[in-house]
Amino acid sequence: MSEVRDQLSRPLRDLRISVTDRCNFRCTYCMPAEIFGAGHAFLKDPQRMSFEELTRILRAFASLGVEKIRLTGGEPLLRADVPALIHFIKTELSVPDVALTTNGWLLEKYARALRAAGLDRLTVSLDSLDREIFGRMNGQGFGPERVIRGIDAALQAGFAVKLNMMVQRGVNDREIVPLTQWARARGLNLRFIEFMDAGMHNGWERSQVVPAKEIVDTLAARWPLEAMAPAYRGEVAARYRFLDGGGEIGLISAVTEPFCRDCNRARLSADGKIHTCLFTALGHDVLGALRGGADEAALRNFISRVWGFRTDRYSEERAERLARGEMVEKAEMSYLGG
Ligand SMILES: C[S@@+](CC[C@H](N)C(=O)[O-])C[C@H]1O[C@@H](n2cnc3c(N)ncnc32)[C@H](O)[C@@H]1O
Ligand code: SF4
């Protein structure tokens, strides 16, 4: 196995794949329904990576030292071959850490198959327990009950489930305490994500970001907390433990406390383009190279070159670039893999 480093000496360790850009939700902060009337369209089937193509591209990534792969989207469970893909990554590529992020809508159906396939970690997104708030945020009027049944099925299948709560001021910030209470009672590790300026369509405003520090202060007033040391370099979530033994929480503060300097993550879009940052529209067409006849060595070369030229640190530059009035073109999170 060889190792590649970018221009800031960051190794390539972590890969996030959007296995499909499609979704059964229309979250207002990610894929608002209105964008479909405004010219946005899902990829066509032949544009997406097939199972076989994915396995070949992943083999090249694994041979370059990727040790963590997250399957996401879009909604990854809309692809019926996801358990088979996980089985391949675990058994053929021996990747130590394989994770999946889902909105939970189809989880009751898939939980056992995901476990049997060897999935190591599972994250379910749940922004609110309140029917009205949740329905408004997912853009479909769906209540949280079915997602909760999916979480229960995953727990029964043996997963230690993590929850993602995307926090947006004035939308679901009053759900921080109730959701924490609910997660603590079930032994679930809840992670709060600051509202990010991903994509071009979610109407992001800085004033709607609830800083991670404010979330910690709110929770600590109710349940005393202590900061935990990072488990490894490049860990995205800052972790805190409840002093009463009620488990831990994580905070992903991409806006208020950027973590670019340790970022060792590449992203693979649903149509097989490598993006070296969540906040760049520039993708490098590895699927095109494969379809053009590249073998494994050529794919490895392609990926090494892309990573070797990488200089991205958007989150650290955000304030400065926005203050300059700079227009930054970004790809949608569902396409790129959130
Ligand atoms: C893009 S989704 C894809 C996986 C799956 N569909 C889901 O919702 O879990 C992955 C994660 O990104 C988060 N996300 C999407 N748009 C976001 C934004 N603008 N800011 C912060 N988090 C966002 C979601 O809340 C979710 O937890
Ligand atoms: S956050 Fe996930 S569930 Fe919501 S629209 Fe985006 S991809 Fe779909």
Q: Strand arrangement, largest sheet?
A: 7-8-9-6-5-4-3-2-1-10-11-12
Per DSSP, the total helix count is 11
**Uncertain spans:** none
C-alpha Rg (nearest Å): 19 Å
Distance between the termini: 28 Å
Number of strands: 12
Shape: globular
Class per helix and strand makeup: alpha/beta
Beta strand %:
15-25%
- Helical percent range? 25-40%
Sequence of secondary-structure elements: EHEHEHEHHEHEHEEEEEEHHHH
Average pLDDT confidence is 93
Name the ligand types: S-adenosylmethionine, iron/sulfur cluster
- Please describe the biggest sheet, giving its number of strands, its sense, and whether it closes into a barrel: 12 strands, mixed
Explained architecture:
With about 350 residues, the chain is α/β, with parallel strands linked by helices. About 35% of the residues lie in helices and about 15% in strands. A 12-stranded mixed sheet has the order 7-8-9-6-5-4-3-2-1-10-11-12. It is globular, with a radius of gyration of 19 Å. The protein binds S-adenosylmethionine and iron/sulfur cluster.
